[in-house]
Design goal:
The protein is mostly helical. It folds into 2 domains: about 1-70, no CATH class; about 85-185, no CATH class. The protein is about 25% helix and about 5% strand. It has helices at about 5-10, 85-100, 105, 120-125, 145-155, 160-165, 175-185; strands at about 5, 20, 40, 70. Strands 1-2 form a two-stranded antiparallel ribbon. The chain has a two-stranded parallel sheet with strand order 3-4. The model is unreliable at about 1-20 and about 25-65 (pLDDT under 50).
């Protein structure tokens, strides 16, 4: 992947030397961004940065985005960052967070021994975006519905075995849920 640093594109220094922009995102490297169809996600950089990003270390340079049309919470399933989506670690911690738990109550017995994985609530909390996990489409995220759906998917269930008894008639189908998790949440779940 070819990358350009912010200083190369805008002629000023970014607030962190860790930021780079893929050349393909910069209209082939030619000038300011002209499109208003770009969307920022809070999961942008999740795999690169270990701490929550704030306005102190993220800034949009003039001319980069003329308008930010939408900022949404990104859907992250691999919240421990071990490069594996697991029902017994990521799924369990997400379910506990859906139940309103925080701190050690979320992470106790659910973290993995991987040296590169996030292990504490302080490390994991920035990746827990519950609003993005409204899998049944009810308008809110609930452990009794969305949490059950998520765990069923993470344990390898498919089809009606995922949705039966959880999604109301006319609600989201297995295909809708799988497509969403694969497209927006980094999943690779089979039909």
């Amino acid at each position: 992947m070819t990358t350009l640093s912010f200083a190369t594109v805008w002629g000023d220094t970014p607030s962190s030397s860790n930021f780079v922009m893929p050349a393909s995102v910069i209209n082939s490297g030619g000038g300011d961004m002209a499109s208003t169809n770009y969307k920022l996600s809070s999961s942008l950089g999740d795999s690169t940065f270990g701490a929550r990003q704030s306005s102190a270390n993220l800034a949009l340079s003039p001319g980069f985005w003329p308008t930010v049309i939408g900022v949404t919470q990104g859907c992250v399933l691999d919240i421990d960052g071990d490069q594996t989506i697991s029902a017994t670690s990521d799924g369990l911690m997400l379910l506990r967070a859906m139940l309103g738990l925080t701190g050690d109550a979320v992470t106790a017995g659910a973290t993995v021994p991987n040296a590169n994985a996030r292990k504490t609530w302080q490390q994991i909390a920035p990746y827990v975006h519950l609003a993005a996990l409204d899998l049944d489409g009810s308008g809110d995220t609930s452990a009794a519905t969305d949490g059950v759906l998520l765990l069923r998917v993470m344990f390898g269930l498919t089809g009606s075995a995922v949705t039966q008894g959880v999604v109301a008639a006319g609600g989201r189908s297995w295909n809708d849920i799988r497509t969403y998790l694969n497209t927006y949440c980094g999943g690779n779940f089979s039909p």
